[in-house]
Write a structure and sequence with these properties.
Blueprint lengths: L6 H23 L10 H12 L3 H25 L10 H20 L3 H17 L2 E2 L2 E2 L6 H15 L6 H28 L5 H19 L10
Antiparallel strand pairs: 1-2
Helix pairs in contact: 1-5, 1-7, 1-8, 2-3, 3-5, 4-5, 4-8, 6-7
Amino acid sequence: MIARLPAWVWLGAGGLAVVAGQVNVVGYLGFEHLALSHLTGTTSLLGAAIAGGDARASLHLLAMIAAFVAGAVLSGVLVQDSTLRLGRRYGVALLVEAGLLAVAVPLLQRHAIAGAALAAMACGLQNAMTATYSGTLVRTSHLTGMFTDLGVFLGHRLRGLPAEPRRLWLCLAIIAGFLAGGVSGALLHAHFGYATLYLPAAATGVVGATYIVCRMRRPGTGRMAP
């Protein structure tokens, strides 16, 4: 049960969902039309590519999957825990994500598949970084779980069963953030192309650096107050 949701959880979940929405829509509108923030569709496309004997597409799709998993591995190395708690090395993880997105831009502009792989790696890192809070799954790079939880909440309410309003609002915040990221990312992509990724790179970089500074101001505590 979610007893309460501190402001940093709301801001972090919604803000990172915006970032993921922007990155994913840029990947979808790009030269390979790839989903970067989740792997369900990518795995389905990989199956179709293998069945059709398309070696090039299969290798590209495998690269996306491997990069996303590598990002999650990197998050595990940096954050070292799947439970959201202030004081962990989220600042370093966000700076790494910013760097991956920034480096991806010139590669994507040259239509290099490595650029899409770096962006997928950034999404894998982000998704693994925000895993659980108060025993509840918090995923910011895809919405399947959020829509599932929304449906379960509504089903419980229809049957008169107890349901957590805070969980509902958290799901809606993440869904709205991802959608807003998709809309803004698509509009910016029409004018700036792959350079649109500099925006989420700057956002994660600034937040990551700010987090590190705030954490350093509380020496010896190992964490910041909620």
